[in-house]
Amino acid sequence: xxxxxxxxxxxxxxxxxxxxxxxxxxxxxxxxxxxxxxxxxxxxxxxxxxxxxxxxxxxxxxxxxxxxxxxxxxxxxxxxxxxxxxxxxxxxxxxxxxxxxxxxxxxxxxxxxxxxxxxxxxxxxxxxxxxxxxxxxxxxxxxxxxxxxxxxxxxxxxxxxxxxxxxxxxxxxxxxxxxxxxxxxxxxxxxxxxxxxxxxxxxxxxxxxxxxxxxxxxxxxxxxxxxxxxxxxxxxxxxxxxxxxxxxxxxxxxxxxxxxxxxxxxxxxxxxxxxxxxxxxxxxxxxxxxxxxxxxxxxxxxxxxx
Length: 306
Ligand SMILES: [Zn+2]
Known about the structure:
Bound molecules: zinc ion
Strand order of the largest sheet: 1-2-3-4
Order of helices and strands: HHHHHHHHHHHEEEE
Strand content: 5-15%
Radius of gyration: 26 Å
Helix content: 40-55%
Structural class: mainly alpha
Largest sheet: 4 strands, antiparallel
Low-confidence stretches: 85-137
Number of helices: 11
């Protein structure tokens, strides 16, 4: 299908995809077809860009992830084209630069910090610099962002399978992920840093072989996807379990401290036999006796204590 045809079809299905996932299959198919096109400067004035921009916040997570990924790839490509032509990129464009990859022969011989080519200095050319280069105006910001890319690299390399994935790919991915972070959040802002820390935890998690496999093998698991994915979708099972336990512990502590009502299915209502109840516990007698639990059935309203 031509890009014009894809554009027309996407336009037809876009509004529905924003509200529901009822046309998910067809939209995913269209987006997958679009993703096979590499960005061409003629797209800059075409509605396809607008469709992709909207679909980044589509109702369905997979649709929005794929739209984000295509959009961000195109954006990087647009920047490359703009740089080559020494002209400004499309208005409103900003964010990541295009990383260069290492030529290291041995693993970990080169950290990402050595491999990022700085944006061209103003004296190199009279033409205006691309907007993305604005982030690199300060050597300090550039150095800080390099450090973030390096931290990502360090996390990932902790359990890295060097036989399968080259150091070059690891370095490039670290820069791409940092670039995606900088696209999504203001570079070096608190949001950017806290997202980076969360990602680094998952990427370096010894039990999260699954996530690392997805990064290298799953075409949907792009840097753009990773920076916006839900925590649940990235964490290893043991990490999820840990978080759940921590949450439960906090809830229990809160509840014991304040006698707050909790909803639960731990109790069976003796009157209606349903298990949807609200309960609270109180220390009614002396401290060495067990707490009394006051239970209210949410189905029939029956109250009792245990
Ligand atoms: Zn009941």
